[in-house]
Design a protein that fits this description.
- The chain has helices at 5-19, 65-73, 77-91, 114-120, 136-163, 257-270, 295-305, and strands at residues 24-26, 30-37, 40-41, 46-48, 51-57, 63-64, 92-93, 96-99, 103-106, 109-112, 128-129, 247-250, 252-254, 277-281, 284-288, 290-292, 313-316.
- It is α+β, with helices and mostly antiparallel strands.
- The longest helix has 28 residues, at 136-163.
Length: 318
Amino acid sequence: MSNYPMVTELNRLIGDRLASGSEIFLPGVGSLYTERCAARRISRNEIVPPYRIIGFSSRERGVSIVGQLMRDTDCDETQAQEIYNRWLDKTRQDDTLVIEGVGTLKLKSFVIDPEFEKRLNPQGHTPIRVKSNRSDWVIWCGAAAIAVALGIGIYQYAVLQPAKMPQQRPASTAAPVAESAPDLPATTTAPEDFPTTAADAPTAETPATATPSTETPAAPAPAPAGQPAADAPRRDDEPHNMISGHRYVVLGVFSTPENAARAARQYREKDPDMQCEVLVFGSKFMLSPFHSASADDCSDYIARARQAHEGLWTYTAR
């Protein structure tokens, strides 16, 4: 304890300011201030509690001790400055400033007094044990399960799904006709040719005892690809194979031949002049009103039929 009451009072004043978290400026020395340090985990179950330290700055920060003396002692600036100068003479020696009960400042480094340390950090610096959060592993397991499920879903979509698709995808992005019976006309013909009217279809029965003609009729000339043949027999909505290399205009794709045949009949009821055929399309069945070896012919047909039938696209048979 200092033998000078004036020194003791200024030491107490500085300590009170710092303990309250305030900054104080010592003219000719620098500024002292309180700095808070956050809690820090040092192991899985232990943390160091938050604490405060005393920092030093050469710049002016906070309230000047001279001004504080003027407010606390009701003296003028000259008297307060004189008190401070006498305190400085008693506490500073060379490059060391000793503030009894607070700490020591040497070469811009402040070492806190043990007693003031207890006042500043009554909780101390002993690590505190904390309970481990047992639910952490549940969160990690849940996140891992979601990641695995997402990976499986992506794999099934990107790898397995393409294997179920036909060999060649249609060039057009227009949606195919739904499997439910469409509200559009359609008919069914053989893949080689297309009758132009319902009158070209064969009768329901052909007498087995019919007398053949004595004259051999001339064989009809084959119809060009993409054009309907006048006398082609129609097998009622029976699925046929495609002609390799030909391009087919597609009205829709169906999962069963019955669905395709039903759609063909409904097309035919709406427009008897429009002829369709049911074709084998991988594991499904395709309804087509036109086919040709020429891509231009198919494009022209789609252009003509666009107003009556939206969503037409082409498929090239392998």
